[in-house]
Write a sequence for this structure.
């Protein structure tokens, strides 16, 4: 079985759009989908990149907004521009790692993306984060406590560093083995890669590549 890694940050609107369709891509290709929470701010700092919202060319910035709306419509994933965007997403991403350790990632993950890009919540605010977590039926105090543990912080840093080392410069970023795909607009190439890999794995004498 192929493995599809999804490196994301909740503060990325395109990560939200990708999240709405990537599970379907993985299922149709028979691939295992692995969610990899990373800190986009750390990726930007390491690579010298920045959020498109800080684009200095007005025409390009305006075009980016239109592209986001078209991408949303194309994939049928609703998005509402958050009035608090951009936010510091470090707390949210540490909570995501904590949620994975606590076995509640699926509920937390859905609530975080919906809160930011459908409900327009200010999820840079700790109190709003807590309300969002409780509304999802989760134990906010437990998750906050776990998110402050050294191993959780270290895991988020390590995943962010790994993404950069493998070539990531923004979010969403996907990997199929060592092949990297950036952005929602490259999902067709990702789908093709998964299909080709699935066909290869089913051919006699060809063994799946493994990562160390």
């Amino acid at each position: 079985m192929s493995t599809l890694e999804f490196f994301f940050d909740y503060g990325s609107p395109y990560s939200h759009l990708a999240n709405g369709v990537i599970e379907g891509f993985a299922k149709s290709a028979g691939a295992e989908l692995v969610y990899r929470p990373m800190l986009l701010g750390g990726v930007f700092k390491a690579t010298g990149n920045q959020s498109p919202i800080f684009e200095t060319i007005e025409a390009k910035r305006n075009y980016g907004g239109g592209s986001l709306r078209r991408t949303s419509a194309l994939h049928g994933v609703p998005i509402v521009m958050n009035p608090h965007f951009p936010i510091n997403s470090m707390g949210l991403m540490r909570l995501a790692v904590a949620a994975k350790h606590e076995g509640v990632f699926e509920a937390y993950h859905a609530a975080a993306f919906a809160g930011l890009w459908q409900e327009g919540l200010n999820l840079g605010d700790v109190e709003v984060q807590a309300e969002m977590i409780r509304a999802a039926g989760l134990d906010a105090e437990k998750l906050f406590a776990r998110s402050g543990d050294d191993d959780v912080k270290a895991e988020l840093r390590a995943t962010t560093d790994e993404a950069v080392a493998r070539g990531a410069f923004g979010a969403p970023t996907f990997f199929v083995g060592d092949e990297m795909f950036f952005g929602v607009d490259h999902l067709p190439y990702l789908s093709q890669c998964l299909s080709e890999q699935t066909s290869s794995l089913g051919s006699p004498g060809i063994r799946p590549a493994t990562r160390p």
About this structure: The domain at 3-201 is CATH 3.40.30.10 (Glutaredoxin). Residues 177 and 209 are 8 Å apart (CA to CA).
